[in-house]
């Protein structure tokens, strides 16, 4: 159990320093394919601004989003994994956004109480970041 917890924390550190593995566009098509099938990217962009995600992340298209706590979200749609442990699919992105502490306990991303619909909209915006 302790080993799994430590492994999870190591993975979070790798994510935080930008150690997310990239993949081809075809592998990331779940996110990069049709962002509107997930939610509304423009609403997601507004939510990202409203929630202050840029205080921890560097996020293209978000004014003032130059945070250095979490990983930069540049090219998020082209990445193979979310949080270093979940395949980068729309469903997994929504799950991560809603329950980051369940996915990787003790990681730096707080549970923000995001609704499913808001998480879908945020995931749709992140899917535009190719």
TrEMBL record:
<keyword id="KW-0349">Heme</keyword>
<dbReference type="Pfam" id="PF13442">
    <property type="entry name" value="Cytochrome_CBB3"/>
</dbReference>
<dbReference type="GO" id="GO:0046872">
    <property type="term" value="F:metal ion binding"/>
</dbReference>
<keyword id="KW-0479">Metal-binding</keyword>
<keyword id="KW-0408">Iron</keyword>
<dbReference type="GO" id="GO:0009055">
    <property type="term" value="F:electron transfer activity"/>
</dbReference>
<dbReference type="GO" id="GO:0020037">
    <property type="term" value="F:heme binding"/>
</dbReference>
<dbReference type="InterPro" id="IPR009056">
    <property type="entry name" value="Cyt_c-like_dom"/>
</dbReference>
<protein>
    <submittedName>
        <fullName>Cytochrome c oxidase subunit 2</fullName>
    </submittedName>
</protein>
<dbReference type="InterPro" id="IPR036909">
    <property type="entry name" value="Cyt_c-like_dom_sf"/>
</dbReference>
<feature type="domain" description="Cytochrome c">
    <location>
        <begin position="39"/>
        <end position="130"/>
    </location>
</feature>
């Amino acid at each position: 159990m302790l080993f799994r917890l430590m492994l999870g924390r190591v993975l979070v550190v790798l994510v935080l320093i930008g150690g997310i593995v990239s993949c081809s566009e075809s592998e990331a098509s779940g996110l990069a394919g049709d962002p509107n099938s997930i939610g509304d990217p423009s609403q997601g962009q507004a939510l990202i601004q409203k929630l202050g995600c840029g205080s921890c992340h560097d996020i293209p298209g978000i004014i003032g989003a130059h945070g250095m706590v979490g990983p930069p979200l540049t090219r998020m749609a082209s990445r193979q994994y979310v949080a270093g442990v979940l395949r980068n699919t729309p469903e997994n992105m929504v799950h991560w956004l809603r329950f980051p502490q369940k996915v990787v306990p003790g990681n730096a991303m707080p549970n923000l109480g995001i609704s499913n619909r808001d998480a879908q909209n945020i995931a749709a915006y992140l899917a535009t970041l190719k």
